[in-house]
Write a structure and sequence with these properties.
Layout (H helix, E strand, L loop, with lengths): L2 H13 L29 E11 L13 E12 L5 H5 L4 E9 L10 E14 L3 E14 L18 E14 L4 E13 L10 E13 L24 E14 L7 E14 L4 E12 H9 L7 H4 L1 E12 L2 E10 L10 E12 L2 E10 L2 E16 L8
Antiparallel strand pairs: 1-2, 1-8, 2-3, 3-4, 4-5, 5-6, 6-7, 7-8, 9-10, 9-16, 10-11, 11-12, 12-13, 13-14, 14-15, 15-16
Amino acid sequence: MGEKKKYILVLLVGFLLVNSMSYAQSAYSKFKIHSYNHKRYRSNLHIEPRIYYGFMISHHTELQLFNSHVPAFELSLIKDTYGKQIWEREHNYPYIGLSFFYSTLSDNPAVGQAFALYPFITFPILRNSNHFLGFKLGLGLGYLTKTFDPIDNYKNIAIGSNLNVAINLMFEYRLILNESTELSTGLSLIHFSNGSMATPNYGLNMPMLSFGASKRLGKANKKMNSRRPQIPIFSYKPNKIFIFNVDAGYASKNMGNVFGERFNVYTTSFSVLKYFNRISSLGLSIDFSWDGSHEALLVKEGIIDPSVITVVRPGFAPTYEIKIDKLIIGLGLGFYWGGKEKSDGSIYEQLSLKYIVFNNVFAKVNLRAHAARAAFVSFGLGYRLQYDFGIKNGKQ
């Protein structure tokens, strides 16, 4: 799969964060409950300009030359959900939207400027009629005007490609002045990375403080509290609902700065998670990865013809998942317990997006990283099985 196709796929999966689904599928999918058709549907759109100010993190010593304060600007089209779809009610009416982001980045001319376009969803943590505290997750594509070049721009050792994945993680507070106007402030971590599709790939990380003001473009729909789905009481047993996942994936990893070539990466994972409410689950993932670049590194270190067992890296990771209709977002922090190649450490982080495409079959995009430096982005398929322990023939 070409690099451009991979980036387009990442953007399309991210767009699912803000796409209104045709029906909802919660953890209790055996009870078919369809979304409510609102007879007087309005767009519920806001437009919001936002200014940012922060700094570049030198999360590796090689990036210290890029240390500087960073200004940025963002323009967002926001929709506050009101319960037209069941997942909106299950997540307490989040904000969804699309943002355009621009930053001049570092004072160092080797880095250039950044542009990004990403869909997002803001989950409520606390809210009332005048105040809103939430967590925003934005995922899309970024474009950096300057990248590493061994002749023309050899000082930019942070990023080796113009196209990158852009991520915005933000804790946001909104003051609702009236039905049409809101003020907001937020604390964000902005991240640009290409997932080792090109090298170098240290990535760019920027903590930023921001301020914004939004204006509603039309009349608002009232939240549909009275239309929450009625789940049969015997089905709501969060301590007895388990999910079993198995999946396999493939990645292409660029090691041009070390070996002058690309390598194949193959992954497989097995996980068991338990729902602790309607939308969230916790569990454990057992991960296996075979990375062709690790085989080359072992040969370089003097290990002739390393075996598969020597190259394979097994690991286990406590994992959290949140379900938004057919889209599942997963976060994991893992530990490798095997494999000879350990130059990037024994700890890994994972961000995964799963989309249920047919019954229990899902497509998966998974970002593996070490100390905030992306190792690879894999694409794959998996199977998801739900089992309700304690429920038999509709009785407990």
